[in-house]
């Protein structure tokens, strides 16, 4: 081995400078040949971003791509170019795109990936085709809904928003647009005490109230809506329901309203602070009782006031008692009967009777129909003050029958005493 190495070294050392000159000259000749001929060779460019063209042209055909377009495609390209150009070839001067304008109907479409390069010739593209799904574009109006979040300042009321438009128009892929049933905006009213007007974004919801994910399939995205939200001071005010301040119309002849009550007994109102503070009670609009008698529960309406908003329906329930007007009649010298003892002697044989009751009954009542009696049963001989009683008078509250005497002076004679 040592001899071999020695032999190689002897060969190299022999005419060393002459051999070095020959090597350098060969290298220069080879380099010149390479530079002068500039051979064509292949190179690969990776991760080229895929551009999507023809979107507006596709939309003009009322079509939209719903599947197959990733947010970012990565394209690899194999390019054949002169050696000197390789240093210039990169993802900045190699472009790739697909053209959606070639799609003419809904359904599946296969699109060619087109690549352009400033240097060389494209030999292969990976992937060379993109498969997409297209749908018809439709327009549809859906109602605008809302939901308040939070609470306003204490003592203030927030009214329903007044939308500039109660519907919005959606335009996009049919499968998505058809699923949307409402455009709902979430309106924060936390701490509000002044009226505001502004624009709110909307969420697109389906029949179940769940959000519809639409990505780029709704052209222009979910629309915004403009609305005014009125906020006013509020307070609770008593409803005045009394016979003195309630107008009751068409009371049947011979009848009167004796009692009135209302439910609820108060209502919340909103308006200018100074105005609502000046309102002490709320009155009822006139109530008609035509053809009604007895105890009645009727719907009534609280009066409308300029500048005042009621925070609940103005309809209330009024309970009325409609009864006959009472008459009072005095019957003089009505005889007193003694019952239970035939021997009893009554010292005061007559009494005045005052009867108060429904006019139709009292006006027809006669003295002969009045029965006043004292019960002397089980009394032994002697003199007694015996309570007077009145037999039931039909249609009359007996508590409203009064006698000029409460008791009768009755004597029960002894068995051997002559009356």
| Main sheet summary | 7 strands, mixed
Number of helices: 6
Unreliable stretches (pLDDT < 50, length at least 5) are none
User: In terms of structural class, how would the helical and strand content be classed?
Assistant: mainly beta
The order of strands across the largest sheet is: 26-31-29-28-25-27-30
**Extended strand count:** 31
Overall radius of gyration: 54 Å
Mean pLDDT comes to 89
> What gross morphology would you assign?
rod-shaped
Distance between the termini: 184 Å
| Residue share in helix | 10-25%
Strand content: over 45%
Description:
By secondary structure, the chain is mainly beta. The chain is 13% helix and 48% strand. The protein has six helices and 31 strands. It has a seven-stranded mixed sheet. Strands 2, 5, 8, 11, 12 and 14 form a six-stranded mixed sheet that branches. Strands 6-4-1-3-7 form a five-stranded mixed sheet, with no helix packed on it. The longest helix has 22 residues. It is rod-shaped, with a radius of gyration of 54 Å.
List the helices and strands and how they pair.
Blueprint: H1 2-13, H2 16-37, E1 40-53, H3 55-60, E2 63-67, E3 74-82, E4 94-99, E5 107-112, E6 114-117, E7 121-126, E8 129-149, E9 156-158, E10 162-163, E11 167-173, H4 174-177, E12 182-188, E13 196-201, E14 203-205, E15 224-229, E16 231-239, E17 248-249, E18 255-263, E19 266-271, H5 273-277, E20 281-282, E21 287-288, E22 294-301, E23 308-310, E24 315-324, E25 326-339, E26 345-346, E27 350-358, H6 359-362, E28 372-375, E29 382-390, E30 401-403, E31 407-412
Parallel strand pairs: 1-4, 8-12, 16-20, 17-21, 25-28
Antiparallel strand pairs: 1-3, 2-8, 3-7, 4-6, 5-8, 8-11, 9-16, 10-15, 12-14, 13-15, 16-19, 18-24, 19-23, 22-24, 25-27, 26-31, 27-30, 28-29, 29-31
């Amino acid at each position: 081995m040592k001899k071999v190495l020695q032999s190689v070294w002897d060969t190299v050392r022999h005419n060393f400078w002459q051999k070095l000159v020959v090597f350098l000259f060969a290298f220069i000749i080879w380099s010149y040949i390479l530079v002068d001929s500039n051979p064509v060779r292949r190179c690969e460019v990776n991760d080229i971003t895929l551009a999507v063209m023809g979107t507006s042209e596709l939309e003009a055909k009322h079509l939209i791509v719903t599947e197959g377009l990733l947010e970012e495609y990565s394209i690899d390209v194999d390019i054949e170019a002169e050696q000197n150009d390789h240093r210039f070839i990169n993802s900045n001067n190699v472009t790739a795109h697909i053209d959606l304008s070639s799609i003419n109907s809904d359904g599946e479409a296969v699109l060619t990936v087109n690549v352009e390069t400033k240097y060389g010739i494209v030999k292969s593209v990976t992937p060379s085709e993109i498969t997409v799904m297209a749908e018809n574009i439709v327009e549809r109006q859906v109602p605008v809904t809302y939901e308040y979040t939070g609470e306003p300042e204490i003592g203030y009321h927030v009214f329903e928003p007044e939308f500039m438009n109660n519907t919005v128009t959606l335009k996009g892929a049919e499968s998505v647009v058809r699923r949307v049933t409402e455009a709902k905006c979430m309106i924060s009213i936390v701490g509000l005490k002044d009226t505001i007007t502004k624009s709110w974004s909307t969420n697109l919801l389906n029949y179940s109230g769940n959000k519809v994910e639409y990505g780029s399939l709704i052209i222009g995205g979910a629309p915004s809506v403009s609305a005014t939200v009125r906020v006013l001071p509020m307070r609770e005010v008593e409803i005045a329901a009394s016979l003195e301040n309630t107008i009751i119309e068409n009371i049947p002849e011979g009848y009167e309203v004796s009692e009135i009550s209302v439910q609820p007994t108060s209502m919340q109102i909103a308006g200018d602070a100074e105005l609502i503070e000046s309102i002490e009670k709320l009155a009822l609009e006139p109530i008609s009782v035509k053809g009604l008698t007895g105890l009645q529960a009727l719907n009534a309406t609280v009066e409308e006031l300029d500048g005042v908003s009621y925070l609940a329906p103005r309809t209330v329930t009024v309970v009325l008692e409609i009864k006959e007007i009472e008459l009072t009649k005095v019957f003089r010298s009505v005889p007193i009967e003694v019952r239970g003892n035939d021997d009893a002697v009554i010292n005061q044989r007559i009494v005045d009777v005052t009867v108060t009751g429904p006019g139709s009954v009292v006006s027809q009542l006669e003295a002969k129909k009045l029965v006043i009696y004292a019960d002397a049963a089980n009394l032994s001989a002697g003199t007694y003050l015996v309570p007077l009683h009145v037999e039931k008078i039909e249609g009359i509250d007996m508590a409203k029958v009064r006698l000029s005497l409460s008791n009768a002076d009755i004597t029960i004679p002894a068995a051997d005493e002559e009356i």
